[in-house]
Design brief:
Length: 325
Amino acid sequence: MSELHKFVFEGLPVRGMLVRLTDAWQEILQRHKDGGGYPVAVTELLGEMTAAATLMQANIKFNGALIMQIMGDGPVKLAVAEVQPDLSLRATATVIGEVAEDAPLSHMVNVTNQGRCAITLDPKDRLPGQAPYQGVVPLFGDRREKLEKLSEVIEHYMLQSEQLDTRLVLAANEHVAAGLLIQRLPLQGVGNLAGQSGARDEDQIGLNEDYNRIAILASSLKREELLTLDADTILHRLFWEEDVRRFEPMVGETGPRFACTCSRERVSSMLRSLGRDEIESILAEQGQVEVGCEFCGAQYRFDPVDAAQVFLQPDIQPPASDQKH
């Protein structure tokens, strides 16, 4: 069962989280089996993204969706992981072209150093005129060197956006997507992804000895250990000399789990945004409008009667002649 563990180091300005996605991650991959599944390297990238997005959502306790996107000019045109405040999650990737089994991040999405990572916070109760907050960082470092690990990209993002030292270890295969996050707590103010940070002491960044020691210990965690060992074993092996206080694990209904937020109502809204002329053109050519969810594979079909009701009664859910599959 998928699980999330939170912990702090007693008396030190350092916190941590460990996530292991098993059934939730396998459900995501199963949803894409009909399309042939993902290449090995894409599976690993998308799994790492899903684990990282789960850690970030749990870290900020944001009342809305956290959406992580990686886009670029390689065969992986777009990869998306979305996590809701209750830790329900979904993920998908669009792949056009061949991807080698051992392809690094740059070969998949950053061939000419134009790749980007975007992290969006979309509030659940968005006010009129309020736009989601989005932070975007390139897939290269301060010297424009290509970053080959997703963990490096997110660490770079956290340092730039939140001015917080973060160490992230990620790993994924076809069975497990897992991640370990270690973060230095802010000494002043409150930093978060929505940009509402207080005054910061720039000189403290990177100079806390306790954080640096724990970050080095976290970095010693090997990929196979993260994928195969349970949380108790990992935390004991890494931090057996530290005073670690752990909180109740988040599992089952309170933990990470697969869920898709698509619905016929949302698809109807999308069709309305396309406009009547566009929809009538599709109907004339194909006889119906069919929309598939890229996250879960659900198919929504609208015949001419359904489509007419979408535009005649925009605030009322039309009766479905073909339900979600």
